[in-house]
Design brief:
Layout (H helix, E strand, L loop, with lengths): L1 H12 L16 H11 L7 H14 L3 E5 L2 H11 L7 E5 L5 H7 L4 E5 L10 H11 E3 L5 E3 L6 E5 L10 H11 L2 E5 L7 E2 L2 E2 L6 E5 L12 E5 L2 H11 L23 H11 L2 H19 L5 E2 L6 E2 L5 E4 L3 H13 L5 E2 L14 E2 L3 H7 L2 E4 L9
Parallel strand pairs: 2-3, 2-6, 3-16, 6-7, 7-10
Antiparallel strand pairs: 1-11, 4-5, 8-9, 8-13, 10-11, 12-14, 14-17, 15-17
Helix pairs in contact: 2-9, 3-9, 4-5, 6-7
């Protein structure tokens, strides 16, 4: 099977050279817009492309307000801050995630609570979340959700749309309503993914996108805060631009803000990339269909979009029969110049998060031992 898989990947990408997991492609107006930015000299956080990129993301996602940031971690950090998460507070999230989800908490002095995933979209499980809260939390007289043992405030729930596949948002929203929690979507991987017809990142109060070099579209480095309320959007813009009060020349800042504004140079790249978004998504869906067909009638299960969703298939994934099969596949493909990778090590295994609160993580540990990502770069040609 491994030899046939390597052949399939090489046929898809028409090369005998090294095939990365997810590489960017630049076949539109990238050079034109970047040169225009350099010529204008407005290469930093002021310039027309930053505003234009935000508007384009608003149009694509349907969010009320999109605020560009320097990266996805900055977008998550800002969203948490806007949700009134502060040092000592707790936030429910999943152990199966990229470390940036938890780094954003760590550097603001907040702590994660690791809850299990479900095996459909590999995202935060609403049943497990509700169960943990019922056993370990209460709502005080002021309406604040708190941890029974430590009395620490639990402020938010932050699921991640793993590999671009939307989590069970409606059920998580119900949990949040029952426990007075803010839903923040880590949508770093899910630009172009829809949950019941609505774009991911727009169903919670806040969402966060990433435009890192390995995402569906890239700005080189960049992120975006998605706000479902205009007032939240205005405040997000304010705190991510050093909280400077507008004035023709005076420098007055009314709170301790962040210098998180995306540079115009990066936004120019993003404007060109987002013009190609639909074509890239179509390409990725075709590649996913090739993988799905290949793995039919095998011991390996290709990860498909949930029935309630339309996924971007950011990173194609398979579930191997066991850890031994996973390791064999990883070793063989990578030796042959076809990049595959295991899913991230679970967050509670990392030294900086080893002592954090957690629930039963049976599904997370099962997935960690079996998931493998396959080459998923989009390209603009037909099969």
């Amino acid at each position: 099977m491994q030899t046939q898989l390597i052949k399939l990947v090489r046929d898809i990408y028409s090369t005998n050279k090294f095939i990365p997991l997810h590489a960017p492609s630049f076949s539109g107006n990238e050079q034109k817009y970047v040169i225009e930015t350099i010529t204008s000299t407005f290469v930093s956080s002021v310039g027309k492309f930053v505003d234009e990129f935000e508007q384009k993301v608003q149009q694509v996602t349907g969010t009320a307000k999109a605020i560009a940031t320097v990266n996805g971690t900055a977008a998550l950090h800002s969203a948490l801050y806007l949700a009134n998460v502060r040092a000592g507070d707790l936030v429910i999230t999943q152990a199966l995630t990229f470390v940036a989800t938890c780094n954003a908490l760590y550097h603001m002095g907040a702590k994660p609570i690791f809850i299990d995933i479900e095996r459909n979209a590999f995202g935060l499980c609403p049943v497990a979340t509700e169960q943990w809260l019922s056993e370990n939390a209460f709502i005080d007289e002021q309406g604040q959700c708190r941890h029974k043992d430590t009395q620490a405030a639990i402020k938010a729930v932050m699921p991640m749309h793993t590999f671009g596949h939307p989590v069970q948002i409606d059920e998580l929203l119900t949990v949040c309503q029952n426990w007075n929690l803010t839903l923040i979507e880590d949508a770093a991987e899910s630009l172009g993914s829809y949950y019941k017809g609505k774009h991911t990142g727009t169903l919670g109060r806040f969402g966060a996108l990433s435009f890192n070099g390995n995402k569906v579209i890239t700005t080189g480095g960049g992120g975006m805060i998605l706000c479902q309320d205009q007032e939240d959007g205005f405040r997000a813009k304010h705190i991510t631009t050093t909280a400077k009060v507008p004035h023709p020349y005076e420098f007055y800042h009314d709170e301790a803000g962040f210098n998180y504004r995306m540079p115009n140079l990066n936004a120019a790249l993003g404007c060109a990339q987002i013009e190609q978004l639909e074509a890239k998504l179509a390409s990725k869906r075709l590649i996913a269909e090739q993988y799905l067909q290949f793995f039919e009638n095998t011991d390996y299960c290709f990860v498909v979009e949930p029935e309630y969703a339309h996924s971007n298939y950011w990173l194609n994934a398979i579930v191997c029969p066991d850890a031994s099969a996973r390791d064999s596949l990883l070793e063989t493909t990578n030796k042959q110049g076809v990049m595959t990778r295991p899913v991230w090590q679970l967050m509670h295994r990392l030294p900086m998060f080893a002592n954090e609160l957690k629930g039963n993580l049976t599904n997370s540990e099962w997935a960690e031992a079996r998931l493998v990502n396959l080459p998923s770069s989009a390209f603009l040609r037909e099969f």
